[in-house]
Amino acid sequence: MASGWFPTALLRMGAPGTLGSGSSDAIDLVDDAIYAALIDTSVADYNAANTFYSSYTAALIGTPVALTSKALTISGGTPVFDAADVTFSSVAAGKTIGAVLLFKQTGLGAGTCPNVAWLRADALAGLPASTNGQDVNLLWAVSGILTLGGLAS
Predict the structure, then answer these.
(1) Residue 102 is inside which H or E element, if any?
(2) What is the DSSP string of 30-72?
(3) Model confidence at 143, in pLDDT bands (50, 70, 90)?
């Protein structure tokens, strides 16, 4: 799959600040805790039926990182989701990052954390990459992470 939103995530989204983070069913990209996780796609790859983070925990590389400075804006009439670049600290050596998974952290266990978006590593600057025990810096495109139509360019 090309980079994009999980279909179930689109059904759970609403306007920023209107859904609140009290419901584990709804996804508010700005106000909820949205995390990025590095994924080894030789262990698990994109599947639209994998609606929760628990579907990818076996493929996890390192520790997921919370997105900060999240924003949902309009550019050229298209909604754009963006956040600050992230650093995954001291990622164990010997894995190949094939994708980045965005998910909503509910605090109620991996089986309750809805997957938000799948970002293929070959569409992101500096990835795919083999880990070497050092930090992995994930730099989003200047135009943002995703548009409602797909990966921002």
Answers:
(1) strand 99-104
(2) TTS-EEEEEE-TTT----TT--BGGGGGGGEEEEEEE--S-EE
(3) confident
